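Format notes (please read before filing issues)

Several people have asked whether sequences and structure tokens are stored in separate files. They are not. Every record keeps both together, in the order shown below: the sequence lines, then the token lines. Line labels are part of the format and must not be stripped during preprocessing.
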Amino acid sequence: MKKVVLGLSGGVDSAVSARLLREQGYEVYGLYMDVGLDGAAEAQRVADAINVPLYIAHQEETFEREVRSYFQHEYESARTPNPCVVCNRKVKFVSLCQYADEIGAQYIATGHYARIGHDAQGRALLMRARSPKDQSYMLANLPRSVLERCVFPLGEAADKAEVRALARESQIPVAEKKDSMDVCFIQDGDYSAWLESRGAALPEGNFVDETGRVLGRHKGLHHYTVGQRKGLGIASTGRLFVHELRQDTNEVVLSLSDVFREKITVSGLNLCAPEYAESGSFDCQARVRYSKHSDPATVRLLGNGQAEVTFVQPVRAPAAGQFAVFYDGEIVIGGGFIDG
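Then the structure lines:
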């Protein structure tokens, strides 16, 4: 029987994934990644209920170094981080692969809504899920060497309602459990308060317009992101948008015009399907944030893990630090972190 290590969080998605993996003939071993969030007991309760042996990987120090510190540093650098993309690459899937190697399991699995396909040469392809809940964006920083081992049992599910129905049918105790937070280590969603608790609050400064005229005072660069239009507290003749964050002068530039860009550069380029870039460039549909919307673009490799992305039509508010992901229909080509 094929062995698989399943990331078991204590939520409904990973629990149902265990059932589906068994139905597909896998011998399932669970792994809970303990990063100091007090979820181990719930994960163990679910593992016991579905009769899956559970290993707890203590990754508090790695998570602090690779995710929490990164998140803090990005905000301190006036960038908008994407901790889930970073965690998947540097912590979660590393833990899964390490434990799989220890017990001789060829495969790893998670409850992500995504699919693995193969091209005519048998190479692994990361693909969108059937569900509108598609999470392939969050996995686009994984190398093919990891994707080759991946199984995503929920990739063919129609939606979350189908997954919950399977959980109820299997009498899984977390069938109605709420979805997890966007940023797991900031459970109340107050990023600014979390940064301030770590002594990372940035000082107040000036709101300015595009000519440099002072419009008022801002609360610190970490409170804002490019394209933001709510919570500015500045009176104006029209709706104002955050146009730019200037770390060197501690200024937030506001504009009456929304923010659109025809071209961006990305760094830390990861190609899930590197054959697309063999000529040095490729056409694609690009997402500049975690959403369902994508825009036609051409990606040109610049070397040193960098690429230039040129859009057919200007795109709204690509924020430095966010992850841009490139698709060919359902296939994920890769992605990179937006520089500007």
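For reference, the curators noted about this record: The helical segments are 12-23, 40-49, 60-76, 83-103, 144-147, 160-169, 191-197. The first helix runs from residue 12 to 23.
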